[in-house]
Amino acid sequence: MIQQHEEEELPEISMAPKPPPKPIIKIACIGDSLTRGSIGRGVAFGFDDYPSQLQNQLRERSTGEVKFDVRNFGVNGAMALHGLPGSYFSTKEFLKEVKEFKPNVVLVGFGTNDVKYLFSPELRDQHSENFVSSFHRLLQEVGARAKVFLAHRPPYVAKKNGEISDENISLYVHPLIDQVVEKSSFLTGTVDLQRITKNDELFTNDGLHLNHKGYSMIAEAWMKALVDSGVVGGLKKVQIRQLVRNETKSVEAASVSADRSISFYDSITPRQILEQECCRKLESSNGRFVGESLNYLRHIEERILHKQPLNHKGYSMIAEAWMKALVDSGVVGGKKA
Questions:
Q1: How far apart are CA 107 and CA 109, in angstroms?
Q2: Please, which residues have CB within 8 angstroms of residue 219's CB and are 6 or more apart in sequence?
Q3: Within 10 A of 247 (CB to CB), how many other CB atoms are there?
Q4: CB atoms < 10 A from the CB of 250, how many?
């Protein structure tokens, strides 16, 4: 006889509700070739545009509470001036793509190309009012439903390119952008990109377009503006300090919020500083080797790092500099050239 077993009741399985989707902050970057950068040339070029670097920095520093979507709407040769060749108003980015993206935040930078129509008295008479009214209108339209930040000082120009020079931009474009800022009370914030890029080492050979380090500086300046304004949240906040070095002096650049401590060696040409300056000092007689070495270490701490502790990368760079000095001086042999 087959014994029948009573069916056991299965326990109820409660399905945990799916967590709500994380909010996405959409950031549109609008401008000329200094915004566009070398986008589209591949990872091998190091994402040489500030929007890509800003996206990476936001992702790295995010606490996970929000997501960030940074888009590059820069156009080579673009201007804020309306009705002229190269006007941003006539681009597909302005007419369609930015509007379809529906950004929460817009970062805007123009003026470098506009100087071609503003550098002489005759041209200023023709185009100054157009520049102010056009730029104001552009900011209004792209910021209709977004927080707008403006680079009220375009990046520094290291080498004169025709009418495009740092002097011309400072004399003829900056005062007009100041009028735009005064007229545009809806702006959330402004950023001075000229001050933080006054360093020839941040530029490509043409002296106009920035290299990877230059765009990194710009991305961090925008980051600081976003965090300081309270528009962007969900980021780990640790104060960092970066130094920008030129041929004659070191100047302190913006402090920004980040998720890690970044020393001088994370940013501006550490290899050139260590190899050129350190090894130049150490190329002396062996009798002065130790004294010169100690003096240089004090120089690093006091003049460059401002007593900020080195990280692993910083110590690695110093070790490489010592290695080069030892090999070049002939004190250490038996090493591969």
A1: 7
A2: 50, 51, 53, 54, 57
A3: 7
A4: 16
**Cβ atoms 210, 197 nearer than 8 A:** yes
DSSP H or E segment with residue 107:
strand 105-109
Express each pLDDT in 279-289 by its tens digit. 444 443 333 34
Across 10-26, average pLDDT: 73
What's the DSSP call for residue 337? -
Q: How far apart are CA 88 and CA 134, in angstroms?
A: 10
Nearest Cα to Cα of residue 138 among 43, 212, 32: 32
- The answer to whether 319 and 278 have CB atoms below 8 angstroms apart is no
User: Is 28 within 8 Å of 105 (Cβ atoms)?
Assistant: yes
Q: CA-CA distances (angstroms) from residue 213 to 177, 294, 302, 314? A: 26, 29, 23, 17
Question: What contacts 332, CB < 8 A, 6 or more positions away?
Answer: 323, 326
- Cβ-Cβ contacts under 8 Å for 91 (sequence gap 6 or more): 75, 78
Angstrom distances, CA of residue 248 to CA of 14, 139, 216, 268: 69, 38, 22, 15
Which two three-digit tokens encode residue 208? 């106009």
- Give 192's strand partners: 153
Residue type, 126: Q
Question: Nearest-CA neighbor of 178 among 155, 150, 207?
Answer: 150
Do 241 and 255 contact (CB within 8 A), yes or no?
Answer: yes
- Res. 80 pLDDT band, cuts 50 70 90: very high
Token pair belonging to 182: 């005064």
Structure tokens belonging to residue 292: 């010169």
Q: 125-184: per-residue pLDDT in tens?
A: 999 999 999 999 999 999 888 999 999 999 999 999 999 999 999 999 999 999 999 999
CA 79 to chain centre: 21
Confidence of residue 329 (pLDDT cuts 50, 70, 90): confident
Which tokens belong to 159?
A: 């080498």
Write down the residue that tokens 């980021």 correspond to.
235
| Polymer length in residues for the chain | 337
Residue 13, both tokens: 């399985």
pTM of the model: 0.65
